[in-house]
Amino acid sequence: xxxxxxxxxxxxxxxxxxxxxxxxxxxxxxxxxxxxxxxxxxxxxxxxxxxxxxxxxxxxxxxxxxxxxxxxxxxxxxxxxxxxxxxxxxxxxxxxxxxxxxxxxxxxxxxxxxxxxxxxxxxxxxxxxxxxxxxxxxxxxxxxxxxxxxxxxxxxxxxxxxxxxxxxxxxxxxxxxxxxxxxxxxxxxxxxxxxxxxxxxxxxxxxxxxxxxxxxxxxxxxxxxxxxxxxxxxxxxxxxxxxxxxxxxxxxxxxxxxxxxxxxxxxxxxxxxxxxxxxxxxxxxxxxxxxxxxxxxxxxxxxxxxxxxxxxxxxxxxxxxxxxxxxxxxxxxxxxxxxxxxxxxxxxxxxxxxxxxxxxxxxxxxxxxxxxxxxxxxxxxxxxxxxxxxxxxxxxxxxxxxxxxxxxxxxxxxxxxxxxxxxxxxxxxxxxxxxxxxxxxxxxxxxxxxxxxxxxxxxxx
Length: 461
Ligand code: FAD
Known about the structure:
Blueprint: E1 2-7, H1 17-25, E2 29-35, H2 47-66, E3 71-75, H3 78-89, E4 91-97, H4 102-117, E5 121-125, H5 147-155, H6 199-202, H7 207-221, H8 225-228, H9 241-245, H10 251-264, H11 268-293, H12 316-324, H13 330-342, H14 347-360, H15 365-375, H16 383-392, H17 407-414, H18 419-425, H19 443-454
Parallel strand pairs: 1-2, 1-4, 2-3, 4-5
Helix pairs in contact: 3-4, 10-11, 11-16, 13-14, 13-18, 14-16, 15-16
C-alpha cells in the first residue's frame, strides 16, 4: 500500500522526516502538494509569496524526479483532496511535517483522525522548528512572553537540537502516479504588470539556492554579522528568510552548519557572531511560540490596551505614498522600493518603514502587516505578525510604544555614505541638494501627535 507524503512548508528532500519515514516504510511513495485557497480560516497567500512558491515547487519537482519520484499537484480543500488521493492510491500511510497556525493545526488534526479511522498509519513530524512551542514553558508552566528567558531556556537544554536527516537516495514510485495539475496553470506568477521581473536577480529559489546562501553567509558574512546586520547597504545577513519560510532549508540544518563552522574556525569573534546569528533564528522560534499560543497574532493586539487606541483614518493617498515609496522620507522610500524590486527589505529598514507608518502616520499596524504579507517573499505567518506588533509596541516583549524612530537620524547612523539610499533612489545625494520630494508629513509634529495618542495607553515614563 502506498505511502502518501503531504508537503506544505517543507519543500526540501534533505532533513525532511515525513519524506524519510515514507521511504523507510518500503512501499511506493506518492508526494503531494495541495494549493488550498478555499478552506475556512486559511489565510490566502500574498502575491510575492506565490511567486516564490511557484519556483520552489518547480525546484522540488526537479529534486523528486532525480530520485525517481514525482510531485503531485492538486488544488482544493486539502482534507477533501487527501481523501480522494487516499482512495486513488490505496494509501496505507500518510505523513507530514507539522505547522503551527491554529486553522492549520485543526485541519491536520481532523485529517489525522480521518486517516487513522480509515486504517492508515498517520504521523506528523517535527521539522520546521527547533523547539516545539508546547515544550518551552516558564517556571510557572506558562508560555513565554519575553524573548531572552525564552531563548535561554531553549539553548540551555541538556541536548541540542537533533542532527539533520539525510536526503533519501531513491524514491520507490507507484506503478502509475496519480494525476497532477500543471504548475503553470496555477497562475501563481504575476502577469500584467510583472512586478517580479527583477526578483530572479536577487534570489535563487529552491533547496540548492538555500544551501548556497547558507554557505555564502558562513564563509563570507558571518565574521561581520553582529555589527554589519544593521547596515542595510551591506550584504551582511544570510537572506535565508524566504528559504526558511518555505522550508527549503530547515532550522536544524542552519543550526548545525553554523555550529560546525564555529568549531572548525575557533575564535572569540566567530563565537560571538555565530551566537548572534543563532539568536536571530531564535526570534523566528519565539514568533512561532507566540503564534502557537496566541493564534490571532496577526489580527489581535497582544497588549489589550491597544484595543482602544485612536488610530488615524488611513488616508488612501497617504497610504499609497507609503506603499509606493513616495513619502519624501528617503530611508522609508528606499526600503519600500527595495520591497517592490526584490520582494525583500533589510531588517533595519523594515523597522524604520513600519515605525513611520504606525507612529508618524498613525496607521493601524494591521494595515502595514497586510501590505508586507502581500509583498514580501518571506511573508511569514508568525514573524510578520510578531514583528509588526513588536514595532507598534502592542506585542510581546515589544519595543516601547513611546519610542518613535527618527528616520533621518536612522539613515545617518546606519547608511552614513547613503549607499543604500542611492541604490534604491537612483542619483540621490542629499534631500536638500537633490530636490527630493517634500515629506508628506512633518516628522516632529507627527511624533508629538503620536506621543499624545500613546498617552491614552497610560503614563509614558
Ligand atoms: P538574518 O539576519 O540572516 O537572520 C537569520 C534568520 O533568522 C532569518 O532568515 C529569519 O528566519 C530569522 N530572523 C531574523 N530576524 C528575525 C526577526 N526579527 N523575527 C523573526 N525571525 C527573524 N521575517 C520573516 O521571516 N518574515 C516576515 O514576514 C517578516 N516580517 C517582518 C516585518 C517587520 C515589520 C519587521 C521589522 C521584521 C520582519 N521580519 C520578518 C524579520 C526580519 O526582518 C527578517 O527575518 C530578516 O530581515 C530576514 O533577513 P535575513 O534572512 O538576512 O536575516
